[in-house]
Amino acid sequence: MKPVKFKETNTIFAKDQPQYLQLPAFKDAEGRVTVCYHLTIWERLTVLFKGNIWFQSLTFNKPLQPQKLSVKRPDMRGIKRGVSECYKA
Fold it and tell me: Which pLDDT belongs to residue 82?
């Protein structure tokens, strides 16, 4: 599973942190962050037959933030853009 850029991407988390995988995302003015992951064929088959997706978050012992996983693209129309310029993927 790999995080991928999408047309609304306007920021890259961990851009200058080589110890982490870069995370392209859309961040709006209210702090909502949207990320898209692309599954390989093998991962798709695994999800199809096992029905599980695992999620792990590095909290560094800080409170866990609310999370939401979905197979549907969230509506990002009309949402105020973050401070970064939008990347045209």
Answer: 45
